[in-house]
């Protein structure tokens, strides 16, 4: 296994991690923005008001996007396992 192969494999893993986590981060970001606008408009500063909606939004996003995320992860792992004989030999 050459250093180039290791770097390429690491790059692919980081790209996959960013791709799979993006929907969850975007849901949390959008929910946080909406809650902060609501808090600014009503002047309610409750910590649980920011936590619970983000948790619900991330859960819903995980349920909706879960199959897509699992498909990408399993495809990557299949390609990785399939390339092991080429890396060794």
Structure, briefly:
With 89 residues, this protein is an all-alpha fold.
Verbal overview:
The structure is a single chain. The chain has helices at 3-42, 47-82, 84-88. Helix content is 91%, strand content 0%. It has one domain (3-88). The chain has 89 residues and is mainly alpha-helical. It starts with a helix and ends with a helix.
* Count of helix runs: 3
Q: What is the N-to-C order of secondary-structure elements (H for helix, E for strand)? A: HHH
Biggest sheet statistics = none
Task: List low-confidence stretches.
Answer: none
**Helicity level:** over 70%
Radius of gyration: 19 Å
Q: How would you classify the helix and strand content by structural class?
A: mainly alpha
Distance between the termini: 8 Å
- Return the domain count: 1
Which term fits the overall shape? elongated
Tell how many strands the DSSP assignment holds: 0
Strand content: under 5%
Mean pLDDT: 92
What key phrases describe this protein's structure?
89 residues, 91% helix, elongated, mainly alpha, 3 helices
Q: Topology of this structure?
A:
Layout: H1 3-42, H2 47-82, H3 84-88
Helix pairs in contact: 1-2
């Amino acid at each position: 296994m050459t250093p180039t192969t290791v770097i390429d494999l690491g790059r692919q893993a980081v790209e996959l991690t960013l791709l799979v986590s993006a929907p969850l981060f975007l849901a949390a970001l959008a929910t946080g923005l909406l809650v902060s606008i609501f808090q600014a408009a009503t002047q309610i500063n409750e910590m649980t008001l920011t936590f619970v909606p983000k948790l619900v939004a991330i859960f819903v996003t995980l349920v909706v996007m879960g199959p897509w995320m699992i498909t990408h992860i399993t495809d990557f792992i299949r390609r990785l396992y399939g390339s092991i004989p080429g890396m060794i030999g």
